[in-house]
Design a protein that fits this description.
Blueprint lengths: L51 E7 L3 H4 L1 H11 L3 E7 L6 H13 L6 E4 L2 H9 L7 H7 L3 H4 L5 E2 L2 E2 L1 E14 H6 L10 H11 L9 E4 L37 H16 L6 H6 L4 H6 L3 E7 L18 E4 L12 E2 L1 E8 L6 H11 L2 H6 L11 H12 L10 H10 L1 E2 L9 H16 L5 H18 L3
Parallel strand pairs: 1-2, 1-3, 7-8, 10-12
Antiparallel strand pairs: 3-11, 4-5, 6-8, 6-9, 6-11
Helix pairs in contact: 14-15, 16-17
Length: about 475
């Protein structure tokens, strides 16, 4: 079992903003058709059992989560159980929701099921004792989280939540431009392949130049995914810090990422210059949909937009490729992922019933909800396709999206092991970002950038030790 460590510092700290995006489409339930066999946890309760009311605390809005339809479906399955929705933010604001959740937890309010929007929020609430370990329930049901789900939610060798939705990162491709260059839509590729594609897709000069790709970060300590490209597709240690709180910047793949970014911008001249991104405040949607860049590495919250919207129309065909690998022999599909962490409240008086709901919601319930791709690994390609059909139906030109490449990429994607962000993560990000800027603007070489980043991050870690 993969070990995760909840840092003591996680009890108080900066909450990471969730990359939430409400998925479009109708509330129909076509995605649930052809459902697989129910997991053990979805077996009905004894009809003679007492009525149970569960309170579900969530930041998810009705528009984004289709709650009424979903909870009605569960009550039809479990007539003795009513799930009461406690809406923590009408806007789906995760920071507002976390504040209200913490206040409720400190009160005598009944709490049964809790939803956390990111790994930091999940780890912090576990450290505060808000979530019940689910290991005994899971052992009784006879499955392993790391096998049944594409996100492994272990913290300190225990499971406190099951993952709901699944938003992996992928590569959006201008298929018209790929066709012009005689390039196939990749189904399994490396960063070397990605760089080669970018070079071949780059055309023109000056203001009319079209770049092979656009990297939307890092900037101001944010969008730091773009500085660990060759770290993020590893099963373990995919972050700047390790699970024990030490620096991970001695990972050769950190330096290799810097070298990749430097080569693509300076030598190949196939990626939009960093200086342009910063000075012109470029937007990734505009760069891709205006056909200024042929490839865009981004999160699958874009599913709701890749078919075009009123605000950003689509005038070409779009395909999707998986997050590139470091080496051809590496495991395919490992990529940054955002999810919902669905937990049983430690103070719940109906823990078994709450767990049964959590297990159902994170498996068949995701199909019933029909709003997001589930993290449940037992979901079939056909079921994912049904959800994608619903999502794309909310766009202007779904026919321009290569649906097969999108579905295949989503099905193949999986998350690296969770390493909860440190409470001082923002300081770490800012330091690395600043050293990268010096390098990409020509003020220091790669080796100096790695050394300075390591030195600064080690000082930040030491300063935050208690």
């Amino acid at each position: 079992m993969m070990k995760r460590k909840v840092w003591a510092g996680a009890i108080s700290g900066v909450l990471m903003l969730s990359l939430l995006s409400g998925c479009g489409g109708s509330n129909n339930n076509n995605a649930a058709n052809g459902n697989t066999a129910s997991p053990d946890a979805t077996k009905g309760t004894n009809a003679a059992a007492d009525k149970i009311n569960l309170r579900l605390y969530t930041y998810g809005t009705e528009e984004a989560y289709n709650w009424k339809h979903t909870l009605d479906a569960y009550q039809a399955l479990e007539p003795n159980v009513t799930v009461e929705l406690v809406q923590l933010s009408e806007k789906g604001d995760t920071q507002e929701a976390f504040k209200k959740l913490d206040l409720e937890a400190a009160s005598s309010a009944q709490m049964d099921v809790l939803m956390f929007s990111d790994a930091a929020g999940y780890a912090q609430r576990v450290a505060l004792g808000m979530a019940e370990p689910l290991d005994d329930f899971i052992a009784k049901d006879g499955y392993k989280v790391e096998e049944d789900y594409k996100v492994d939610t272990h913290l300190d060798d225990k499971v406190y939540a099951l993952p709901g939705k699944f938003n992996p990162w992928y590569v959006l491709l201008n298929k018209n431009q790929l066709d012009e260059a005689g390039l196939a839509v990749p189904t399994d590729w490396t960063w070397d392949d990605f760089a080669d594609y970018a070079k071949k897709l780059t055309t023109g000069e000056g203001a009319q130049k079209r770049y092979g790709t656009y990297f939307h970060g890092p900037q101001a300590g944010g969008w730091m995914e773009f500085l660990k490209l060759k770290m993020e597709n590893q099963p373990q240690n995919a972050e700047y810090l390790k699970a024990d709180g030490t620096s991970n910047l001695d990972d050769p793949n950190f330096k290799a990422t810097l070298e990749l970014r430097l080569r693509m911008e300076k030598e190949d001249q196939s990626s939009v210059p960093y200086a342009d991104m910063i000075s012109q405040k470029l937007a990734y949607r505009t760069q891709f949909f205006n056909e200024s860049a042929s490839m865009l590495l981004i999160g699958s919250w874009m599913n709701t937009e890749i078919g075009g919207t009123d605000k950003v129309p689509l005038n070409f065909n779009v395909a999707v490729a998986p997050f590139p690998k470091n080496n051809a022999a590496d495991e395919i599909g490992l990529t940054p992922v955002t999810t919902d962490y669905v937990a049983v409240a430690a103070k719940s008086k109906n823990k078994e019933a709450a767990y049964k709901f959590v297990r159902w919601y994170t498996t068949e319930g995701q199909l019933v909800q029909g709003k997001n791709i589930p993290a449940w690994s037992k979901v079939t390609s056909d079921q994912v396709e049904g959800i994608i059909d619903t999502i794309l139906a909310g766009t202007k030109n779904p026919e321009k999206v290569d649906k097969k490449s999108l579905v295949d990429t989503l099905v193949a994607s999986k998350a690296s092991a969770i390493i909860p962000p440190a409470t001082y993560q923002a300081e770490v990000n800012k330091a690395i970002n600043e050293e990268y800027e010096k390098m990409i603007l020509g003020n220091q070489d790669v080796d100096t950038t790695v050394k300075n980043s390591q030195d600064r991050v080690n000082k930040i870690i030491a300063a935050n030790k208690k």
